[in-house]
Give the backbone structure.
Amino acid sequence: MKNYFLSILFLLLASASNFGQTFSDDFTGLTVATNLAGQSNWIKGGSGPDVTIDNTTPLTYEGYSSGGAEYVVMGTPTGTSSRVYKTFATPVTSLVNTTFYYSFLLNVSSAADNVSTKNYFMSLGVSGASTSYGAKLFTTANGAGYSMGLSKTTNTAVYGTTVLEFNKTYVIVVRYTFNATGTVAPEKYDDEAYLWVNPQGATEPLTSTAECTAVVAGTDTDFDGYGALADVGNFVWHNRGLGNPVGAFDALRVGYGASSADAWTDLNPGALPVEMATFSANSVNGDVELVWQTATEKNNNGFNIERKSASGEFVKIGFVKGNGTTSELSSYSFTDKNVKENYSYRLKQIDFDGTFAYSNIVNVSASTLPTTFAMAQNFPNPFNPSTSISYSLPQPGVVTLIIFNTLGQKVKEVVNGFQEAGSYTVSLNASDLSSGNYIYNVSVNGQSISKKMLLLK
């Protein structure tokens, strides 16, 4: 189904091997606890550190298919530079008036103050052993988290203002547009570069919504501003110094085209998007009931049901057959019997060709029937774009869970239907809402509870 759980941008980025993107790598099947260089045509240059492969905690983002459990670990940076790169199967040689997009999953565990050290950690590059790079990415510490930065070629980044959380996975999207070529102004500075974090929507993101922009003109020299490039043909990770981040990345994608729309199509093949209306978990008399709905499906073989304990890893406990390809609303359920401890649950949606994507995670406490009507504060809060809302029903009834803006206008209906007595956890995806404060209200049997939550994009 190329299951693009919830209506978020990268629900369309399924396994690239099926679509012929300019470049992709999910690191699937690579040897863990081993350097990336030397595997799958990745090559190391320089005397600094390599990156390594792991599969302990796979990177996932709702709807963005990472294609497998393996991912790349960026260890503690050193002051000695190195790079690890892979060349596209067909490097791109026609560059004037063309656009590249690249995207990947990023999870940063620590980031240094990089404003003065100016160390980039990702870029595109000329193919082979060349050290010509463009569309450079940076991180820098910012308060309790970090921010992303971008440049065309300079080591002085333009940083965004959003403070990203450590140990949280984000989708990073970069666009680089080649305009006229030349080594003197204005052609030397006329290319454009943009960066988005978790962009929303099923179409090409607007430049006005970019987290940061390397502008036309200024002093940031174009990728081809020092001279004509032979091609663009490498994706490169860099250890440039102590300003580089520690963390992990996965699911690299590169798209190219004669226009930005063409490049976006190459990056994003435009499969039928799937919207999961709800995914909820309900604990009733020692059983956990999982219920979910999809609005549309394409090539959906079905769903693995996976659960994990607080100290364990996700394991498969069941399978629910999908509906193949359909534009109709589809409802599914699964009951985990005789649950004796607290668990986390997720769905692994699998296409007929083996491509898969994970849903969000819901947490359930094993318990008897609740004695009071209650609703917990959503978690996480603030959030972007998904959060979980938990409530308990001592009696069965028709339940509504509705999201209001601060003007009291209903903006989203999450639940509306009969539910048995029990404890429920519902996943809310707010990718279609703007940043700001919202009120969520649950009502049943003439009783109502409201709480505030904050969406930060």
Notes: The chain has a mean pLDDT of 87. The chain has one helix and 30 strands. Residues 274-367 form a domain with the Immunoglobulin-like fold (CATH 2.60.40.10). The chain has three domains: 9-267, 274-367, 369-457.
